[in-house]
Amino acid sequence: MATRKVLKKLKKHKDNKYLWFLISTGILAGLIYFSDPEKFLQSIRSADPLLLIPALGFGLAMFPAWSYVWYRVFQKSEIHMPYRKAVRIFMAGNFMNAITPLGQAGGEPLMAYLVEQNTDASYERALSSIFSADIMNGMPPITFILGGTGYLLLFGSLNTFIIQTVYMVLLVTAVGSIIAYLLWFESGTIEGSILKITRKISQKTGKGKELVKTLEEKLEKIEESFKAIGSDPKYLLKTSIISHAGWLMQVFNFVILMHALGYNPDFTPVYFVVVISGLANWSPTPGGSGTYEAAMATLVTIFFPQINFATGLTIGILFRLSTYWPGLILGWFALNSLNGEVEKK
């Protein structure tokens, strides 16, 4: 039954999936056209193919790291499964995120159904655990940007772009930290506020009593899950270190791609390009496609003035071909294998 729910929701997204991938492809085609197609093709041809293999290796290495973050969060919220299955569920979830028109956050409800059907966990516990894992995997860009800014403040110089980025990151950090603190260490605060507002609306309208009762039961399960996850701060800290290691794999990938195109970049600008580009994952296209490559190409030209936009776009596309697209293909196989297992039960 649960499998049918997932497949039904996937089918519901089918038309939108093709539309959004068409839009993403259109964005990329437009970028190549306006950036000078000849320069783009020239930079593609100049890439050293032997260096693309280790770049792909680092691109794939981040998936086991981020999957392990999921695994640890699941264990803490008492969703028991082998690590190998956690990897497959993470990869399947990565695929589902890519077929929704809401960027990185679009597939979470579908992921929760996938966890529910493959474990004995409730949907509410699965969703709260996935959201917690997302928070953990979303921390590295913030800490890396703040750390890199501190380094430049002490040993380098800050330009206007970096300063503006830091202001934005500080705002996101403040809001995100408050939400994470309330969910993990003051469980019930946000859930209680949602329930309070719902009750008031129900009392004023005289409707929705059953909805309030159902919501109360679901929020209670969600609260219990967040409380379990936040019960051991040291456990969360260790999990966060693993997530940061996954992000470093992307940095190594980018450095190798730069060398493949004949550039020997300094670490600091690479650090900022990769981390800031990652924010484009949250753009409203499947997996951030199109906007991610555009963001990376723009950042490359800002931090490496000697590189033109066409070459920057080449780097962005090669980066995605060795990080995002392999995960998408593996995720499709993972989703089908998981659904096949459930059908046999």
TrEMBL record:
Keyword Cell membrane: yes
Location in the cell: Cell membrane
Pfam families, sorted: LPG_synthase_TM
Keywords attached to this entry: Cell membrane, Membrane, Transferase, Transmembrane, Transmembrane helix
Main location: membrane
Gene Ontology molecular functions: transferase activity
Keyword check for Cell membrane: yes
Membrane topology reported for the UniProt record: Multi-pass membrane protein
Parts of the chain that traverse the membrane: 18-35, 50-71, 135-155, 161-184, 241-261, 267-283, 295-318
GO cellular component, one term: plasma membrane
Classification via InterPro entries: L-PG_synthase/AglD
Family designation: Belongs to the UPF0104 family.
Name this protein carries in UniProt: Lysylphosphatidylglycerol synthase TM region / glycosyltransferase 2 family protein
